[in-house]
Amino acid sequence: MAQITKSYEPQEVEKKWYADWLQAGCFAGRADPARRPYTIMIPPPNVTGVLTMGHVLNNTLQDILIRRARLEGCEALWLPGTDHAGIATQAVVERELRKEKKTRHTLGREKFLEKVWSWREEKGGIILKQLQALGASADWSRTQFTMDPAYSQAVLKVFVDLYGKGHIYRGKRMVNWCPGSLTALSDEEVIMKPVKSLLYQVRYERADAPGQFIEVKTTRPETIPGDVAIAVHPDDPRYTAWIGKKVKRPIGPAADIPIIADAAVDKEFGSGALKITPAHDKVDFEVGQRHKLAPIDVLTADAKLNELAGPELAGLDRFAGRKKAAELLKERGNLVKEEAYENNVGYSERADVPIEPRLTWQWWLKYPRIEEAKTAVRDGHIKFYPERWSKVYLHWLDNIQDWCISRQLWWGHRIPVWYAK
User: Fold this and answer.
1) Which is nearest to 278 in space by CA: 296, 261, 260?
2) If you average pLDDT over residues 350-362, what whole number do you get?
């Protein structure tokens, strides 16, 4: 006769009963017209991931709802799956390749994708196994993967449908660019981090009045070769006589750049003058568009200074270029001072490197009219607790922008567009 253990040993007991439940089809969702359907589509966790406390909480709530639906007589289906996690998965595999002194480019696209699929087969199901170990009552026989053929076909169909309706378009706009993964990112993939840096006070000499200077403050002197103007507020009396004049660009290719008036300038920050570098700052890009100023891109895709930055800076990494630019400004008498400065810098969520605002051709999803969503809150149909969050919500909707949906990756869904050379 089998002995009962003195203490509960969950490893064997839970494994046995969970296997019995699966064998009996206890979690299977079956179409039955006679019963009310109840379905939960699991928010697919990344194929690269492992369970976090957030996952456990979220899935526990789903499990409670699906089990209650079964008890109420519904035909319940909890559909599990995993997300291919384009940037995260590619970054993991590329990190492994670097250990072998290889890159995706040395392998080529086909061999690289074989490597990614192999990695996914080996390690991609960890998070689902962890959910099973917790007793999650999902219908595992229907497990989906966002790179499955049927899923991929659905993605292509929706893309073409939305493009045909005018909701998707291609445009050259400013994006969050990851120099590590070499791809555009959405705003949601950028993590803001406080960073201790330096604020450089730089002076620009009037082209028509030697010895007269206008000063600006910047954290990025390496982008000065990309300056196309200096902006001041139109109502700032300090600079009324300067508007329309030109100043000399202090480093990089020699050029005289105009002083323009724009209400986007904060009169209270620094000297009240702002260097305008449209290719490397979102606000500057908008100012440049308003004043029809052509952008000058002085950085490569991997954040090195290019030939447009001038021979003294070309080829340097952006951070080495920052140090060199400060040295050049000091040598030429244009660096007024440096001061310690703490500001928030956007980091790539997956590659964990500072992102670059970059002007590139991308595919965008237009946001639909959202007046109804705002009205529902203003009229009290939807209430926020605490109430202050309603202001945050409305501010977000008032400032929402089109979504960048294209990525420069080898792993993931490919946009169904072909370009004629």
Assistant:
1) 296
2) 93
